[in-house]
Every structure is written in C-alpha cells, then in structure tokens.
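User: Fold this, then the next.

Assistant: Folding the first:
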Amino acid sequence: MMTRVSRIFLIILTIFVGAIYLPKYYWVAFEKRIAAPIVYYSPVIERFVIGHFTTNGYYYSDETGKRYTHNEMDRILPLLNYRILAARGRMPDSLLHVKIDVNQVRKNNLILNIRPKDIFYPEIPLFPLFESKPPRLRLKLPQEFFRITHRMEFIDSRTNQIDREMSEKYTRALKEVGFHFPAQSIFGNPTTRKPFDVGYFVVDADGEFFHIRRIRNIPRCDRVTLPEGIRVKWMGVYEKELKEFYGVVISEDNQVFLLMFNQYYFQKLPISDYDPKTCSLRLMGTLFYRWVSVTSNGYQKTYLMDRNYRLLKTYEESWKEKYQTTAGVVSKYLFPFEISLQDKTKYVTIHFTDYRFRSLIFNGILALIVFILIIRGRKLRFRAWVDIFLVLVTGLFGFIGVLLLEHPLD
C-alpha cells in the first residue's frame, strides 16, 4: 500500500515539475520575442513617432505609418537627440517660437520606467537616511540605518547597536506632526547616485502620508495632505535636477499622480486602465510636452500632455502577444496548464495559468496510448484507471510520470 501511495506522490511531483519546466523549454525553443514599441512625440511634425522592434530589426515610423531613417529621427526629435545635433552643429536655434537653450533642454528631458517588479518586491526594512544638505555638497552613505516599528529606530551599522539619541529625536519629531506608529510603507531612493536627496515618504498606521528628511542632522518631518478618498499604494521617489516633482504616486485604486515640489500638490495624470500588477508605465517628456505609455500584454496606449498635464491626444497600438502566435496556439493544445515560480514581480510565488480545455484533445490521445499499453500488459485494474484519469487531466505531464514510474509488482 505504501509503495502505491509513494508512486502516486512521485507522479504528482513529476506533473508539478513538468508543468514548470516543459513549457519553459518549449518557449526557449519556439518563442519569437516581440518587444513593446517605444513612443515619442515630435514637436517638429506634431505627431507621435514610434520605434518598432521586429524580428528583422528596428525601424521608426510616425502614427500615419510613414517611415524614417535614424538621421531623420534626429531632426524630428531634436530635444531628445540634442547631443548628436549639437555636436554636428545642427541643433535648431528655436522651436515652437521658443529660443532653445541646451542646458534647459537637458534639465527638462525626462524618462521614467515603472514595471511591476519595481513595485512588488521583497524588501529589507532598513533604510539609510541621507543628510539632505551635506556640507561638502556630496551625498555620503550614512552609518546609521533606520526602521519604523513602534518608534523610529536608528541602528549603527558599525556596532549593530541602536542609537538611542537619534531614535528618540526622530520619534519625537514624527509624533509632533501626528504620525501614528508603526509605518505601513516607506518609500525613498537609497542611493548616492543622484543630484540631491529628498528623504523618505512614509505611510503611517492610519494611512496618512508623511515626509521625513535629515537637514544638518536635524529631523524635518512634514505631514502631506492626501487628495480626498486617496490612499497611497506605492511611490517611486526620483530626484531630478529640474525639481518639478518628488516622484510618482500610485493610489490603492490605481490612479497615478505626480507629487509636485510646489506645496506637495498631487498632479493627477489623465490615464486609465492601468494595473500596476500587470502593466508597465513609461513617463517621458521634453521642454514642451510630457507623455505616458501604459503597456500590457499585446497592447499599448500613450497619452500626450502639455506641461500642465492636460491631455492633448492619445495613440494606441496592439500586436500579437505570446499566446496569440502560432507557437502560443500550439502550446494551449500541448500543455493543459503552466506553472511559473514568479509572475511579473520579484516575489518567488507559485503562479498557475487557467486550465486549457482544448488540451483535452491531445490529452485524450495520450490517455488512449496508456490504455493500450495497459491492455497489452493485461493489468486493467482500478489503479490502472487512476493512471488513465491522471493522463487525461494533466496531459503530457502525467503521461511522462506514468511511463517513468511503473506499477509495483503484486
């Protein structure tokens, strides 16, 4: 009895492992990756310009389908290609009746990418609080790291001891502005590779939003008023030389805001159908415009805005996603389901696809083969019917398990 139970367990284990690795190697062999297009906006021709990735290479076209060479792209996107044009002496003196200053062009150019794995990832809850106004004008990694539990605690990385003086000072400063411990989320940009530091933004136990900085070794804590009905899910902090905004805020209902430097104003971006678990978001901009591209499986929508973030126009494009290609259609007949150890995030999780009933055709053929093999061996008993049922339901995965693990001798 124990031997039979062990066999069933090993077959199930084979099915589980097969559902992970057989589709994986199938896609390695047959997948033709199609990268999402990159959308720009040209102030010269006043149209969207798209960079397309194909199996035959890379090409540019505008929204009407007209194609452009690399040199033509330099001309119609002068603000994004200002370095090349300036080096060749071809940078225009003015654009849209505005005199062009290369330094202002550089400061106003913007590219931000937010992917699901940038939002959902395991995190060590210890953060460095930089000195925001260093005396030598250069950011240095501090020796103390903080966490916010029942209070704000600083741990000295040299001794692994709590710095009680700093902990009490910052805890008191947070309480004075109405912070309720513990923190739900802490958002910052813990790197010295940035022009300046704006500290951290923190969601407290009540869902309220706060800004914490270290200025000349003195705590600076401010309460940030949220728009009515908005709760913060995630914030990406981006210190940019232009100092237009602190970062990108995503709310619990998947609205997207820029938290502006001006009085902590929440500037809502006019986009829809954004799901941070499945979509990528790219924010780009130049001296005159900003645009946001939201990309999901096989679909992208781009929203063009002026510098006051008013919607001007949109552009949509779709393409065949993985399971719409020939290899994808075949895979739905070969594999009744697939298992991945992570989805689009950095968390290692077990993710099942939906069951594909069309695979029952191929499963039935495999089950018939097992039936014939059993009949030839004259062992058509109850446990043989269990094998046939497993193959019918799990297809190729169960078929391999049944063939590898024969029935024990009576």
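Now the next one, as you asked:
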Amino acid sequence: GHGTHVAGTIAAVGNNALGVVGVNWHASILPIKFLDANGSGTTQGAIEAIEYAVALKRSGINIKVLNNSWGGGGFSQGLLDAIEAANEAGILFVAAAGNSSDNNDETPSYPASYSVPNVLSVAAIDKNGNLAWFSNYGANSVDLAAPGVDILSTSPGGGYQTLSGTSMATPH
C-alpha cells in the first residue's frame, strides 16, 4: 500500500491512457524496504537500507535520490552517520516532515530534522496551497511543501487509492 502509492507518485508511467502519471515517469526506482506491512521498522533497518543504497552508488549504480516517506523515533547517531555517508556519496535524502502538526524547529522529527546538506524536509499542503492540518512545519527545519492531501496514486494489485500525509508530499 504505502510504498506502492509513493512509488506511483514518483514514477507511474504516463502517456499510456492508464490511471495516474508520476512526477518523473522516466525515473527508475530501486525499492529498498525496511518497514513491515504495518509500517513498523527499526532504526537499524533504516541505517542498513541507507548503507545499502550508498554501497550501490559507490559500486557505480546511478542513485541520485532516496525518498524517505517515513519517520519516527528520536535522534540516532547511527542514522545521522548513514545520512552523512549518503551526502558524501552525492545522494539527496528527501524526508517527510511528519504528520503530528508540530513545529520541527521546537520538536525535531527524524530523519527530516537532521542538519545534513543533503536532507530535504517536506511538509504537506492541500489543493489550495495551505499547510495541511496534520503537517509538521518549521521555518528553519522544513525546506519546502508539496501536495499531500487526497493524493491519488497506485495501489497493490493494479488499482488506485487516495492517501494523505507528508509521505505523499515527499515524492513530489
């Protein structure tokens, strides 16, 4: 569900008279999953996923961006180190700002709140361009906002569904 929806928002094929079109439908996606079907995972799983992407980049695979439509947990030096390694490898780390209506300047939301040059923190806006009621924000900690309310995208089994969240804004 969640990952399929995000992947569709990024790269669903266009100009084929089917469903939706991704924001970059010529992009290639390498799915790296560390969350289970319930959206639960560990910080160690996230670290290993990022380290895997960095290793692939260093081996010659052209990885440019990691979409991180996830968040939770407190500060982790290991996660920060992995994101810094991605930065050193030239990989942009786009992260969901969070869905708890919090000011990330005051209450950091990780991984979006790490101060590393490659981290791009994304809030959600509605169809009128207003901050979504659930979206985290922060004048210093959130970099931009993108559509994140009632986003239609792909779902498992060839269907389509509408979801809301900063996870839906992040792939834009």
